[in-house]
# Entry
Amino acid sequence: NSSKIKGIGEYINMLSGIPSALHPSSALFGLGYTPDYVCYHELISTTKEYMSCVTAVEGEWLAELGPMFFSVKESYESALKRRQQEREDKARMDTEMQKKEEEEEVRRELEKKALEKRSSSASSSRRSAVATPGRAASRSTPKFMRKKGRIGF
# Structure
């Protein structure tokens, strides 16, 4: 069972809405301050409902451990800050994306120019040939000629 503070020393059950107070024998009763959220084990009904076996907890803990029962509502200011941060992150990501696209375009242009340069230099320059004595000036390599006759011993 969990309760949220309603007023000075007053708590309200977060699921059933039953108003209750800290039992005077509780360790949190004489603490000097009242925690915002408490979990308790036992509810003692007298003229007033008192919580006993009480532990102070954070509201985020309840939402984290029991998400089917509790959720944390965002305040207006924190929602504005979150939206502003999201806008800034989106703008930063867009500028990074544009920068990367420009770099990619420059890289493509350089590759294209290098390819054109290689193709133009290869077509314009002559191929150097190896001069071998006793060979014809044919561009193709000669085929190996087989001897006709018997092979072996």
